[in-house]
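[09:14] KT: can someone run the structure on this one? pasting the chain below
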Amino acid sequence: MTDEQRGAALASAYLSAKIAVLHSQYAAELVINTPSPEAITESEFLRELGWVILSAGMAERIVRAKFAAISESFLFWNSAADISRQTETCVSSALAHFAHEGKIGAIAAAARVVAKISFDVLRERLIANPIQELQRFSYIGPITAFHLAKNIGFPIAKPDRHLSRLCKASGFGQVEEFCNCIASFVGDDIRKVDTVLWRFATIHRNYLVHFTTHLREMPQA
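[09:31] RB: done, structure tokens below
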């Protein structure tokens, strides 16, 4: 199979996966506009950082069910300085909704870091080297850094277990290369490709079969 044929087969598999997501309860996830890294605000950054910290190693549905209450506990992510000034109150309130001292403490600690260096300085550092800079925060490791970077607007895909399996099954070495191949065929932003593939994998147990079947059925040259 040529690269062109493989790309076309993957594009076909992706588009059918996208239709499935659009017909699911998660369709709204595909139309959310993420700010560019240059335009993201301190409040938006704190919110996304909090979400990814809480999500590390935990089912998304659990975090989603509790996130509104945790956001209120952290003053709706209004500013890092406000959270830092009221750390004890914020942490105590958040723990009543999400009893994980490590993660709640990590969010409070992250707010102190942002308040200390200022978000303007942090934004400049993120733009220069997002993956490395994000790993300064607890619970943000080599994989979750990609998750957070994507959520704050960087045009990248996260190499989580679902996308890594799809990447390997499709004959690619890197998730970024795999998602860029699909993006170039269908015209979707790489972040949307990532979202479609991840969400499809969470709602369809046989997501790998879906993609490998398209590859097998593609006519050979």
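[09:33] KT: thanks! The CA atoms of residues 40 and 193 lie 21 Å apart.
[09:34] RB: yep, looked fine to me
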